[in-house]
Amino acid sequence: MKKFLLIILVSLINNAYASDYNYVASDHELKFKDGTYEQTKQRIIIGRNITFDSYQAFGEIGFGEDITEGQSIGSGSDYDYYKIGFETKYFDTLDFSMHFESKLNSSGKDNNELQIKTKYKF
What we know:
Helix content is 10%, strand content 66%. By secondary structure, the protein is mostly beta strands. The protein has one domain (2-120). A 6-stranded antiparallel beta sheet has the order 1-2-3-4-5-6.
């Protein structure tokens, strides 16, 4: 895992193509169930977007916190976060994107997600 994070950090430094870029982002989610507040999720992200011909690849690393109802900021469940993926377009009609996301919780089980999206335009 440490080698993987090191590779991502090294790739953040090297600007090989003009359309490649680094970014810093924040992500906030408020979850409600039947109109009642349940949970807040927030994370800080450092990322890199790289373009190879018609493919756009990206990698993100960061950290976050899940806060349930009644908890204050800083007392929630914290985690490390990473996400990698790519997207491309075939024949100007078929969009394809895929990403893998992992949330490495400091306590409890880790959460992983693989998401594949396709869209055909006609």
